[in-house]
Amino acid sequence: MALSHDRRIQLLALAGGAPAVAVAGLFLARCAWPWPAALGLFAGLLAAWWTGALLAQRRTLRPLQTLSNLLAALREGDFSFRGRDADRDDALGSVFLELNTLADLLQQQRVGALEATALLRAVMAEIPAAVFAFDGEGRLRLVNRAGELALGRPSERLMGSTADEVGLQGALADPGVHDLALPGGAGRFDVRRSAFRQGGLPHTLLVLNDLTRPLREEERQAWQRLVRVLSHEFNNSLAPIQSLSGSLAALVRREPPPPDLREDLLAGLEVIASRSGSLQRFLEAYARLAKLPPPRKEPLDLGALARRVAALETRVTVKVDPGPEVSLVADGDQVQQVLVNLVKNAAEASLETGGGLAVAWGRDGASAWVAVEDEGPGPPPAANLFVPFFTTKPGGSGIGLALSRQIAEAHGGSLALEPRDEGPGARALLRLPIAQRA
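RESULT FIELD:
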């Protein structure tokens, strides 16, 4: 049977004093003292020997018991206890010093974890997205305030429910944008799903962003912008038409008729026809922007198309910087319309300053690009570049760039207009993916 640590310490202490006790016993046996006195002295010596062993045992074991109590407190999460006599110059004191340092570190980590958890809970409670966490068995383990509102029940009644029981099985199985009818309200949601591990076990995080309200707000703002544009354009055309109509009617009713009535009528009708034509062109431009057909994608030689468009511009000399052969799948008519708009705008800007105009193309990874650079006065304010019907040119329709960007995005590409790096002027950059779905 193995001896305990306490018993081993006690036996070692007794063994350490045994030689001295044996020598003292032999000495007392050989001396001429009376036997009662010798036996009493030897008994006192044995008692001192035993007491010393017990004291040595206690002195050795008490620090170990203190260490055990400190470690137990750390295991229980109580970091307030500290060991005394912590000193680097003492072996046992060094152990207490390291243990105190560990307790301080764990306490700091505990405070940091509590603060991080409190922040996470506050963020989870305030974010408008509904957040759900399901364990490996598909049962709900976490839900925020927005999730409670979406499901129409408090978290206490939701915890432990399966995704099917709370109506989220379809969203959990198929992320994306879906129209969901939840107890808290129906609408269009952007469904995001990701995996994480907690306690070594797999979990699934499900996030639902309600797109209904933002979409309605965007729709409202779009209608407001449209109404402002239409009101401005109609007022610009109808106000002079109404004024001239009243003036011409007054002239016709005048008795006797003025001698220059015919000339006044012709002049007024010409103005009315001009304003009516302007209004008609505006409506045609709007219809063209609003009814852009989907692209009919076919194989397209980008370099040949760029050269052909550059040759159409005759007001200024267009410098063509040859690039590599780039073939892509796109709607040739729509891409040509974009390049025609870009070259036309660049030419008109160059005419203002007498600068040059250059067209280049190439490829960058999985994208093809066409750059149109001019040495004109530079692009207009960035906030209005692609706003429909915004124009800085007299008689301009303000749909060229808006239509061009719409075409680029319909192809999965992009259109940017920015100042040139090398000098004055603007640089229009059209990017289109080389491989596209039919």
